[in-house]
Amino acid sequence: MSALYPVICSSQPAESGVFYRRLFGFEPTFESDWYVSLASPDLRQQIAFIDYQHDSIPQGASREPGGVLITVEVDDVDAMYSRVVDLDLETVLGVCEEPWGWRHFIIRDPHGLLVDVYKDILPKDILPKDILPKDEDAADPTTIGLIETA
Length: 150
What we know:
Elements: E1 7-10, H1 13-24, E2 27-31, E3 35-39, E4 46-51, E5 69-73, H2 77-86, E6 91-97, E7 102-108, E8 114-120, H3 128-131, H4 136-139
Parallel strand pairs: 1-4, 5-8
Antiparallel strand pairs: 2-3, 3-4, 6-7, 7-8
């Protein structure tokens, strides 16, 4: 395999491209009015956006995205959060530390998709399984407030 990256259906691929370029420093690898492909400067991370009404999208699949959480690991969560504030982006969850060893925050991208920006803060010799509660209900994300339930 030479690459694996998401291509997210969008009503505004150009706006999506601007969002990820401004926030994470991605660079365009291809741009048109219906498709934008981005990569990190080292080309290790990639993401793309396609107009959800483009002819290449199979019939019945043409819709805006939903139910997606984009997770991005960074070296400095606080510096990235300062950037979010400077860019006046919508914050869903401010910077906090979680029992599984993350310091993170969550924002929304132009589609409303959640972007979880984190730094692993566990010492290298401790694994999340070693610190999470053993009770199955306590480890359920719906019981600790991460996922809203209807």
